[in-house]
């Protein structure tokens, strides 16, 4: 990437995050995607995002690309961005956030189907809720919305955008039978939120006897 001299630093961060999530077991069979917002000086690039169809445990910065607001690669046609780039871009448009992380954990896939009729997974009473920015008590309720899955990412992004709760402490959603999307103001915030949600989904899975 020669249009933005600091790109390598951002690509390193994205690659490191992808490898970390894969080591956790949240990225089976080349699935999942990860991005960070780029600064204004990187325009027209909006974010740095992992390329499609690669084992995330082996991912290196050369497999991270910059995309514009249409999801097209800014740094040449060599790499194909993740199929779900449009969901990342929708979140960057709607929220003042710095990173979006998407995983395919067993707990996320399972609970998103089992609670699909309710439309959300209710998380309450867990100490680790305090790992979410702005939450300082365990005895509150955080709802993780669930949306129906689709292979048409443009339609899916348009469906989800107006339905995301406007609450400050909304940091993620589930796609039914698919996985978890999480974000944060910074990449460390987003990775902490991801750990919180993955941990709490495992707790809920056990408490609800979904094993
Ligand atoms: Zn996915």
List the main descriptive attributes of the protein structure presented here.
211 residues; alpha+beta; L-fuculose-1-phosphate Aldolase; eight-stranded mixed beta sheet; 5 helices; 8 strands; binds zinc ion
What does this structure look like?
This protein has 211 residues and is of the alpha+beta class. It has one domain: L-fuculose-1-phosphate Aldolase (3-Layer(aba) Sandwich), CATH 3.40.225. The protein contains five helices and eight strands. An eight-stranded mixed beta sheet has the order 3-2-1-4-8-7-6-5, sandwiched between helices. The termini are far apart. The chain binds zinc ion.
CATH topology: L-fuculose-1-phosphate Aldolase
H/E series? HEEEHEHEEHEEH
Largest sheet: 8 strands, mixed
Cα Rg: 16 Å
CATH superfamily label: Class II aldolase/adducin N-terminal domain
Spans of at least 5 consecutive residues whose pLDDT stays below 50 are none
The end-to-end span amounts to 45 Å
State the name of the first-level CATH class. Answer: Alpha Beta
The counted number of beta strands is 8
């Amino acid at each position: 990437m020669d249009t933005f001299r600091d790109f390598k630093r951002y690509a390193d961060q994205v690659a490191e995050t992808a490898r970390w999530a894969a080591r956790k077991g949240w990225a089976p069979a080349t699935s999942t995607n990860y991005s960070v917002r780029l600064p204004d000086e990187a325009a027209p690039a909006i974010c740095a995002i992992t390329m499609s169809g690669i084992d995330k445990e082996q991912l290196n910065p050369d497999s991270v690309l910059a995309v514009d607001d249409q999801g097209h690669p800014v740094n040449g046609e060599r790499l194909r961005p993740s199929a779900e780039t449009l969901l990342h871009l929708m979140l960057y448009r709607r929220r003042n956030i710095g990173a979006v992380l998407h995983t395919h954990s067993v707990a996320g896939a399972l609970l998103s189907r089992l609670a699909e009729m309710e439309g959300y997974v209710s998380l309450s009473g867990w100490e680790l809720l305090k790992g979410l920015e702005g939450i300082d008590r365990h005895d509150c309720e955080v709802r993780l919305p669930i949306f129906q899955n689709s292979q048409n990412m443009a339609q899916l992004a348009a469906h989800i955008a107006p339905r995301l709760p406007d609450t400050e402490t909304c940091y993620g959603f589930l796609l039914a039978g698919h996985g978890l999307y999480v974000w944060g103001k910074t990449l460390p915030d987003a990775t902490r939120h991801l750990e919180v949600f993955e941990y709490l989904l495992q707790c809920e899975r056990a408490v609800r006897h979904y094993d």
